[in-house]
Amino acid sequence: MRLFVAFVTGSLFGVGLTVSHMIDPPKILSFLDVAAIARGAWDPSLALVMAGALTVTYVGYALALRRRQPLLAPAFALPTRRDIDVRLVAGSALFGLGWGLVGFCPGPALAAVATGSGKALVFVAAMLSGMGFYRHFFERAVVVASRKKKPPA
Protein backbone atom coordinates (compact mmCIF):
# COMPACT_ATOMS: atom_id res chain seq x y z
CA MET A 1 0.00 0.00 0.00
CA ARG A 2 2.85 2.41 0.88
CA LEU A 3 4.46 1.83 -2.51
CA PHE A 4 1.17 2.49 -4.28
CA VAL A 5 0.61 5.74 -2.36
CA ALA A 6 4.19 6.82 -3.10
CA PHE A 7 3.62 6.12 -6.80
CA VAL A 8 0.35 8.07 -6.88
CA THR A 9 1.72 11.08 -4.98
CA GLY A 10 4.93 11.10 -7.06
CA SER A 11 2.87 10.94 -10.24
CA LEU A 12 0.66 13.78 -9.03
CA PHE A 13 3.78 15.82 -8.27
CA GLY A 14 5.14 15.13 -11.76
CA VAL A 15 1.86 16.06 -13.41
CA GLY A 16 1.77 19.30 -11.40
CA LEU A 17 5.31 20.17 -12.51
CA THR A 18 4.40 19.42 -16.11
CA VAL A 19 1.13 21.39 -16.10
CA SER A 20 2.86 24.40 -14.52
CA HIS A 21 5.68 24.17 -17.12
CA MET A 22 8.29 23.79 -14.39
CA ILE A 23 9.97 21.09 -16.50
CA ASP A 24 10.85 23.68 -19.15
CA PRO A 25 14.43 24.93 -18.51
CA PRO A 26 14.02 28.25 -20.41
CA LYS A 27 11.03 29.08 -18.18
CA ILE A 28 13.07 28.33 -15.04
CA LEU A 29 16.06 30.29 -16.28
CA SER A 30 13.83 33.27 -17.11
CA PHE A 31 12.80 33.31 -13.45
CA LEU A 32 16.33 32.90 -12.11
CA ASP A 33 17.73 35.64 -14.38
CA VAL A 34 17.28 38.68 -12.15
CA ALA A 35 18.91 40.90 -14.79
CA ALA A 36 15.83 40.19 -16.92
CA ILE A 37 13.81 42.41 -14.58
CA ALA A 38 15.42 45.51 -16.08
CA ARG A 39 14.70 44.23 -19.60
CA GLY A 40 11.08 43.45 -18.71
CA ALA A 41 11.64 39.78 -19.55
CA TRP A 42 11.49 38.33 -16.03
CA ASP A 43 8.95 35.52 -15.52
CA PRO A 44 7.59 35.45 -11.93
CA SER A 45 5.41 32.37 -12.49
CA LEU A 46 7.87 30.07 -10.70
CA ALA A 47 7.45 32.14 -7.54
CA LEU A 48 3.67 31.71 -7.79
CA VAL A 49 4.04 27.93 -8.22
CA MET A 50 6.38 27.81 -5.21
CA ALA A 51 4.00 29.91 -3.11
CA GLY A 52 1.16 27.54 -3.95
CA ALA A 53 3.30 24.50 -3.12
CA LEU A 54 4.42 26.00 0.20
CA THR A 55 0.83 26.81 1.13
CA VAL A 56 -0.35 23.26 0.40
CA THR A 57 2.67 21.83 2.28
CA TYR A 58 2.06 24.05 5.31
CA VAL A 59 -1.60 23.06 5.53
CA GLY A 60 -0.77 19.40 4.91
CA TYR A 61 1.84 19.28 7.67
CA ALA A 62 -0.42 21.17 10.08
CA LEU A 63 -3.18 18.60 9.54
CA ALA A 64 -0.91 15.56 9.51
CA LEU A 65 0.96 16.47 12.68
CA ARG A 66 -2.30 16.63 14.63
CA ARG A 67 -2.42 12.84 14.31
CA ARG A 68 -0.65 10.49 16.70
CA GLN A 69 0.98 8.64 13.81
CA PRO A 70 0.94 8.66 10.02
CA LEU A 71 -1.59 6.54 8.15
CA LEU A 72 0.98 4.22 6.56
CA ALA A 73 3.89 4.21 9.01
CA PRO A 74 4.38 3.45 12.70
CA ALA A 75 5.80 6.93 13.46
CA PHE A 76 6.60 10.26 11.86
CA ALA A 77 10.13 10.56 10.47
CA LEU A 78 10.83 14.23 11.03
CA PRO A 79 14.28 15.82 10.85
CA THR A 80 15.96 16.34 14.20
CA ARG A 81 19.00 18.37 13.16
CA ARG A 82 18.62 22.12 13.01
CA ASP A 83 22.26 23.20 12.72
CA ILE A 84 23.73 24.77 9.61
CA ASP A 85 27.04 23.19 8.68
CA VAL A 86 29.46 23.28 5.76
CA ARG A 87 27.89 20.24 4.09
CA LEU A 88 24.44 21.85 4.12
CA VAL A 89 25.70 25.16 2.72
CA ALA A 90 27.90 23.47 0.10
CA GLY A 91 25.09 21.14 -0.97
CA SER A 92 22.66 24.03 -1.25
CA ALA A 93 25.16 26.03 -3.28
CA LEU A 94 25.75 23.09 -5.64
CA PHE A 95 22.01 22.58 -6.01
CA GLY A 96 21.45 26.25 -6.82
CA LEU A 97 24.42 26.37 -9.19
CA GLY A 98 23.19 23.35 -11.12
CA TRP A 99 19.65 24.70 -11.23
CA GLY A 100 20.84 28.08 -12.46
CA LEU A 101 23.16 26.64 -15.10
CA VAL A 102 20.79 24.18 -16.75
CA GLY A 103 17.30 25.01 -15.48
CA PHE A 104 16.66 21.57 -14.00
CA CYS A 105 16.49 20.30 -10.45
CA PRO A 106 15.84 16.62 -9.60
CA GLY A 107 12.02 16.54 -9.48
CA PRO A 108 11.33 18.45 -12.68
CA ALA A 109 14.15 16.60 -14.46
CA LEU A 110 12.56 13.23 -13.65
CA ALA A 111 9.18 14.51 -14.82
CA ALA A 112 10.78 15.82 -18.03
CA VAL A 113 12.37 12.40 -18.70
CA ALA A 114 8.84 11.01 -18.86
CA THR A 115 8.15 13.43 -21.72
CA GLY A 116 11.12 12.09 -23.69
CA SER A 117 13.35 15.13 -23.19
CA GLY A 118 16.92 14.29 -24.18
CA LYS A 119 18.32 17.18 -22.12
CA ALA A 120 16.51 15.88 -19.05
CA LEU A 121 17.84 12.37 -19.68
CA VAL A 122 21.41 13.70 -19.81
CA PHE A 123 20.80 15.71 -16.62
CA VAL A 124 19.34 12.70 -14.78
CA ALA A 125 22.24 10.49 -15.90
CA ALA A 126 24.72 13.10 -14.63
CA MET A 127 22.74 13.49 -11.40
CA LEU A 128 22.72 9.74 -10.76
CA SER A 129 26.43 9.55 -11.55
CA GLY A 130 27.12 12.33 -9.05
CA MET A 131 25.02 10.56 -6.41
CA GLY A 132 26.94 7.34 -7.03
CA PHE A 133 30.27 9.16 -6.89
CA TYR A 134 29.32 10.80 -3.59
CA ARG A 135 28.09 7.56 -2.10
CA HIS A 136 31.15 5.63 -3.20
CA PHE A 137 33.78 8.11 -2.06
CA PHE A 138 32.34 10.38 0.62
CA GLU A 139 29.85 8.24 2.51
CA ARG A 140 32.38 5.41 2.59
CA ALA A 141 34.98 7.80 4.04
CA VAL A 142 32.54 8.86 6.78
CA VAL A 143 31.85 5.23 7.70
CA VAL A 144 35.57 4.40 7.80
CA ALA A 145 36.32 7.50 9.90
CA SER A 146 33.55 6.67 12.38
CA ARG A 147 34.91 3.13 12.79
CA LYS A 148 38.38 4.47 13.54
CA LYS A 149 37.02 6.75 16.29
CA LYS A 150 35.34 3.92 18.21
CA PRO A 151 37.43 2.61 21.11
CA PRO A 152 38.31 -1.09 20.98
CA ALA A 153 35.89 -3.33 22.85
Any overview of this molecule?
The chain is mostly helical and 153 residues long. The chain has one domain (2-149). Helix content is 70%, strand content 0%. The protein is built from seven helices and no strands. It has helices spanning 2-19, 25-32, 36-39, 45-64, 86-102, 106-113, 118-149. The mean pLDDT is 88.
Q: What is this entry, summarized?
A:
With 153 residues, this protein is an all-alpha fold.
List its salient traits.
globular; 7 helices; mainly alpha; 0% strand
Could you give the topology of this structure?
Blueprint: H1 2-19, H2 25-32, H3 36-39, H4 45-64, H5 86-102, H6 106-113, H7 118-149
Domains, number: 1
Strand content: under 5%
Number of DSSP E strands = 0
- Main sheet summary: none
| Mean pLDDT reading | 88
Radius of gyration: 19 Å
Q: What structural class do you assign from the helix and strand content?
A: mainly alpha
